[in-house]
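task queued by scheduler; priority normal; single chain, no ligands, no partner chains; default sampling; output format set to structure tokens
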Amino acid sequence: MNNGNLKPFKPGQSGNTKGRPPKLPALDELLAKVLSEPGKGGATAAETILKALVLSACRVHVASAGVVIESWLRKTFAGSKY
């Protein structure tokens, strides 16, 4: 390994001249913000997605039905001993 080109930083100077990159917003906060924004017809994005998911489940789309049922069960039995 050739260490001849390695030089220490000058006093008071770091190797990262642009500084620390900015933190990304928390994903859960960003998702909550986006899903709560009203869209076409006044419905929020969350309401629109949920309606589409339920309609898909009603059309015998098994994966969508599973998501709807699992969400309903979690809410219904939250905190129960079952």
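post-processing summary
- The mean pLDDT is 77.
- Residues 38-76 form one domain.
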